[in-house]
Write a structure and sequence with these properties.
Length: 237
């Protein structure tokens, strides 16, 4: 009987301790990171408050606010002037919004924060949101597009026409290539282009997808009638 009472007392005390812990005691583990301390040390008050407001607004709208924090910290590490940091964060927030809104229209796909950030970087490098939508629409269901979107932007930044870059990435996705293989595309462009990104685009995009390769030189494409020059005039004696 004493043993039963003792066990019950221990359990009761343990329950009391659990209940006594304040409800917010675990909050620091799930609370969003606050970059204000680091920003305060590097930015003037007015600019700092605007940057923090942009980050807070992005977070409230479900955007990957950490991407904006990284933008600010990378610029700070390069000793970028404070006003330029402000402009960079604001511009990145606008890109994130454009990408989020565009990808939200893709049926049966919910884009992650990482994908939205990768898409924003692709847009910063020169890609268009319509190409991101095409990528998300054509990609296999359930496939993460974080790496493909980064690669798309990298290809465009290296001078590859955006349509060729999109075709090259889509070809790898259709072939169920892993991210490690897709990630090699920018290096392949650098190695093969020799300063001729258009030729590399045709090589990467045109020859990797069945039915899309161009006709050999001198052979007209399907559906196009060859131009036949008129016969030379015959001189009369």
């Amino acid at each position: 009987m004493n043993r039963i009472y003792s066990t019950a007392s221990i359990l009761g005390a343990a329950f009391t301790l659990i209940v006594a812990v304040p409800a917010g005691a675990q909050a620091p583990q799930s609370r969003a990171y606050d970059p204000s301390a680091e920003l305060s040390a590097a930015l003037p008050a007015q600019i700092r408050e605007h940057v923090l407001a942009v980050i807070a607004d992005a977070r409230s709208r479900g955007l990957p606010a950490e991407a904006l924090e990284r933008t600010a910290f990378k610029a700070m590490a390069r000793n970028v002037p404070a006003r330029d940091i402000d402009r960079a964060v604001t511009a990145q927030a606008e890109r994130l919004t454009r990408v989020q809104d565009a990808l939200a229209r893709v049926k049966n796909r919910r884009s992650s924060g990482e994908e939205i950030e990768a898409g924003a970087e692709a847009v910063r490098n020169g890609a268009d949101v319509t190409e991101l939508v095409a990528l998300a629409t054509s990609a296999p269901s359930g496939r993460s597009l974080e790496v493909p979107m980064h690669v798309l932007g990298s290809l465009v930044a290296r001078g590859l026409p955006s349509k060729d870059a999109l075709s090259a990435v889509l070809a790898r996705l259709e072939a169920r290539a892993p991210d490690t293989e897709i990630g090699k595309l920018p290096e392949q462009v650098s190695a093969r282009s020799g300063g001729k990104p258009d030729a590399t685009g045709r090589e990467l995009a045109g020859t990797k997808r069945p039915g899309t390769a161009g006709a050999p030189a001198g052979v007209p494409a399907a559906g196009i009638r060859p131009v036949v020059p008129p016969p030379a005039p015959v001189s009369r004696p």
